[in-house]
């Protein structure tokens, strides 16, 4: 009777079926092939919006859905590969460690098969498959919702450096006053801004106030934003203070104003005093583009500046990731897991 062939043809259905039986065996070459395919899909999903012109949500879904389908079976193949090497299943938890995961994957590809008795570790295996299932759900949900870190102070007081915000990505019409996340050029980290003018409108900035179609916004005093002068968030951003140069640990005070656009949209902004960017020439926003400003008018590059000098220029609607809805977590510390910098009062805060 003919034996089973040593090398079987690549088959997504077989990989899917075998991965759901995590007590079996997967050889090194088969695992390497699976890793190559999943790595390619992951790279396509992450880099597609940056590398390909005309990348749409449909393209993103086509790259993400196979990752969702294979997330649990892929973990099953990790456990099968550990079986094939004669290792215990709890080694798979090394994939949760940022640097150890790459070493573990290299070992899983390179190690020869073993004839030693396989270990079941059924409870750990079941837990690992459950975690993989949760990650698959998170990945599927990322097609509608995603989390994004805030690294600059351009959107104070609505967003602070060190915030992790929930961005709604579902099909939606961007409206004036929305706080949106968007991509600029080849940057991988998103930027944030408030939509001030839409395509087809004319907009200028006079005395720090937006002027839309010749009608200026209005402002009313809303007190002060008080914060400690020091490094904030993972980038170590130093706040811009309206009360001048202060020492580390001193009170940093900046005027807080309630700004109301001509259509009645209202939100809070910060003003640290007279600055060059308080004035911007009137421009016509092209169709399909947005004019965005930071709520901290003295802190950042937005549509008042071109991309070449650190601004955003006009923001193409197709580069908008989505609307920012709420703060998921917040820390002013250099490392988010440092409890000394946590801001528990911001958890769940709705962004308006």
From TrEMBL:
The chain crosses the membrane at residues 30-48, 60-79, 91-112, 124-148. Pfam families: Peptidase_S26. CDD domains: Peptidase_S24_S26. GO terms for molecular function: serine-type endopeptidase activity; signal peptidase activity. Its main location: membrane. Signal peptide: none annotated. GO terms for biological process: signal peptide processing. It catalyses: Cleavage of hydrophobic, N-terminal signal or leader sequences from secreted and periplasmic proteins. Residues 132-328 form the Peptidase S26 domain. Keywords: Hydrolase, Membrane, Protease, Transmembrane, Transmembrane helix. GO terms for cellular component: membrane. Its EC number is 3.4.21.89. It is found in: Membrane. It is a single-pass type II membrane protein. It is an enzyme of class 3 (hydrolase). Belongs to the peptidase S26 family. NCBIfam families: sigpep_I_bact. PANTHER family: CHLOROPLAST PROCESSING PEPTIDASE, SIGNAL PEPTIDASE I. This is Signal peptidase I. It comes from Rubellimicrobium roseum.
């Amino acid at each position: 009777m003919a034996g089973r062939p040593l090398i079987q043809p690549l088959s997504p259905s077989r990989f899917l079926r075998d991965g759901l039986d995590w007590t079996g065996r997967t050889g090194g070459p088969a695992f390497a092939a699976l890793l190559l395919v999943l790595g390619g899909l992951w790279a396509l999903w992450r880099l597609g919006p940056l590398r390909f012109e005309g990348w749409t949500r449909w393209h993103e879904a086509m790259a993400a859905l196979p990752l969702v389908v294979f997330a649990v079976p892929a973990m099953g193949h990790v456990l099968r590969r550990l079986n094939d090497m004669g290792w215990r299943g709890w080694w798979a938890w090394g994939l949760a460690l940022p640097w150890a995961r790459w070493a573990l994957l290299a070992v899983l590809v390179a190690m020869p098969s073993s004839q030693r008795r396989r270990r079941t570790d059924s409870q750990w295996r079941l837990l690992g498959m459950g975690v993989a299932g949760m990650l698959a759900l998170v990945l599927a949900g990322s097609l509608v919702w995603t989390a994004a870190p805030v690294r600059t102070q351009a959107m104070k007081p609505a967003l602070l450096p060190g915030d992790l915000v929930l961005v709604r990505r579902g099909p939606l019409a961007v409206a004036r006053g929305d706080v949106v996340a968007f991509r600029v050029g080849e940057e991988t980290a998103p930027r944030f801004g408030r939509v001030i003018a839409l395509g087809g409108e004319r907009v200028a900035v006079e005395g720090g106030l937006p002027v839309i179609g010749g009608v200026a916004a209005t402002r009313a005093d809303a007190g002060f934003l008080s914060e400690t002068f020091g490094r904030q968030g993972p980038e170590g951003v130093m706040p811009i203070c309206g009360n001048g140069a202060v020492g580390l640990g001193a009170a940093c005070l900046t005027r807080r104003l309630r700004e109301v656009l001509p259509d009645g949209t209202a939100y809070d902004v910060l003003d640290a005093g007279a600055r060059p960017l308080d004035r911007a020439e009137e421009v016509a926003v092209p169709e399909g583009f947005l004019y965005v400003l930071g709520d901290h008018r003295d802190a950042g590059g937005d549509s008042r500046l071109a991309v070449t000098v650190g601004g955003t220029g006009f923001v193409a609607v197709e580069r908008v990731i989505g609307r920012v809805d709420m703060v998921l977590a917040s820390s002013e510390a250099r490392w988010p897991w440092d409890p000394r910098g946590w801001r528990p009062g911001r958890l769940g805060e709705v962004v308006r």
